[in-house]
Structures are given as C-alpha cells and as structure tokens.
Amino acid sequence: MTRIIAGFAGSLTLAVPRSGTRPTSDRVREAIFSALEARDAIAGASVLDLYAGSGALGLEAASRGAAEVVLVEKARPAAEVCRRNAAALAKAGRGSAPRIRVAAQGVSSYLESAAGGVDLAFIDPPYDLGEAELARDLALLAPLLADAATVVVERSSRSPEPTWPRGIDPERRRDYGETTLWWASAAEDEDQPAPPSQPE
C-alpha cells in the first residue's frame, strides 16, 4: 500500500498500477522528502515527476506545498492511475491543492517540448532503462532547470552513475538496499564541466 506521508493530504492512500511500475518504498520517499525539506526545495516549486508510475513522488511534493506538478507517464493504465490519484489529492486539498497535470507521453517526447523553470525533478525510470536513454533524458532536462533546481534520480544499486550532461552538477549518492538515489542540481556555470559526485 502506498500513502502520502505528510502535508495536507497526509495518509491519503494512492492507487498503484497493477503491473509495469516499481513504487518507491516509504523508507526511500521519507528520506527524499526529509532532505528536500531541509533544502527548502518544495514550497512553491514547479515539479516534474518523470516515469511517474502512480505519481507518488510528485503528489507527495504537491501535498507538501509545491505550486505546480506535472506527472509524465507513457503507459496508459499508469497514466490513468496518476489521474485518479491527482483527483483524490485535489479533493483532500479542498480547493487549495496545487496545479497537477498528467502528461500521458514518453519522457523524451515531453521534455523536447516542455517549458523551462523546473525547480525540482524526480527521475525514477524502470531499472531496465538503458544508460544511454537515461543520459538522453538528463540532457533534455538540463536546459529546463531553474537556478538552484534539484534533480533526484532513483536507480538500482547495481546501475552505474548516470552520465551527467552539461548544466547538471552531481552532488552525492545515497544507498538504500537495492535502491540508489543520485542527487544533483542545476549547474551554476554551464561553461564548467560537472565534477564527479562523491559517494557517502
């Protein structure tokens, strides 16, 4: 069972697609959002949840004060689950919920035509997504990021570090059993190459 952890929709139960997705565990979501709140990276943010699945990451951000959330999910059954979950969260907000939109299309296709100003991006692709495809997604995302934007990539602990494009600086990794989180931010100076991230 997947629930919203905190915020105005705290404890709201979310539907999960029957197959084809890998929901982020409560432990990992709690770690992500604890770190984001310590950065003051959620309140008023424009959020992208790429490979959204149930939409749990983006909707958690919405519950905690994000201004706008886009859930990008290509699989039609999962996109419909995202819509239902977004509607349930909006109902819990009683008119004060942020703008939430579901983009039922591929991630690369969405990013190629998306507007900039993204403050927070979650990338939680299937573990079998190829490294070249992930690198392409990151390269398309980079020019859309606002100053001081945060990027969180969730991968298998057996996957290599993502190939970071110019415009995104890696910061650190965190391991949670079979899951690894890669944290990165919008580069302050795009003329400088990104340094290697530091494991902790």
Descriptive notes:
With 200 residues, this protein is α/β, with parallel strands linked by helices. The protein contains five helices and ten strands. It has an eight-stranded mixed beta sheet, covered by helices on one side. Strands 1-2 form a two-stranded antiparallel sheet. Helix 2 packs parallel to helix 3 and helix 4 (107-113) packs parallel to helix 5.
The 3D shape can be described as globular
Number of helical elements: 5
Give the H and E element order: EEHEHEHEHEHEEEE
What fraction strand?
25-35%
Total beta strand runs = 10
Give the distance, in angstroms, between the N- and C-terminal Cα atoms. 30 Å
* Helical content (DSSP H or I, runs of 4+): 25-40%
Order of strands across the biggest sheet? 5-4-3-6-7-9-8-10
Q: Main beta sheet, described?
A: 8 strands, mixed
Mean pLDDT: 92
| Model regions low in confidence, pLDDT < 50 over at least 5 residues | 190-194
**How much is the radius of gyration in Å?**
16 Å
Structural class: alpha/beta
Features:
alpha/beta; 200 residues; 28% strand; 10 strands; globular; two-stranded antiparallel sheet
